Amino acid sequence: MRLFPCLAAAAVLIPGAASASSLVIGSGLARMCYEAADAERASPAALDTCNRAIADEPLSFADEVATYVNRGIIRARMDDWPGALADYDHAIRLDPKQPEAYLNKGALVLKTQHDWRLARDLFDAALQYRTRRPEFAYFGRAITNELAGDFAGALADYQKASELAPNWAEPKKELTRFSVRKRG
Questions:
Q1: Where are the domains of the chain?
Q2: Model pTM above 0.85
Q3: Which residue, of 37, 67, 104, 131, is most buried by count of CB atoms within 10 Å of its CB?
């Protein structure tokens, strides 16, 4: 099995996972940071909004954690991968059960470090803590399973991603590469 399709699929995962930003309930800068991350508006101005939210706004605990995830998403889209990883790690240190931090970190680790073992653990954590976008976690885990040689696990996870997001073409595209044969 060639690894190229898996790594190409990993590149597709980044924009999708990044849309799984953490919702900020309040108003003001943190809300604007969330909206920029959710709308895929990565720019120096969006990053500055997130920075100011963290530095200047009195945020609830949940909003602070979410703002770090959202800033990480914006940094990842701006190709500041070390900064994005630092934000996801900070969110996880603050709240070890923050699923969107695990999801987005898993996608970034898979894309930039090609560390499928770590990425699989991160996707598992995102699912364990009930990410808002489980289809992306299953898709990412499918890629890691395929890279590990666990083709049955990859097939099952691509199928689950497709089931959860029936209008998302990527899992269906990946499923076309599989054929199932009965033994014997």
A1: 4-175
A2: yes
A3: 104
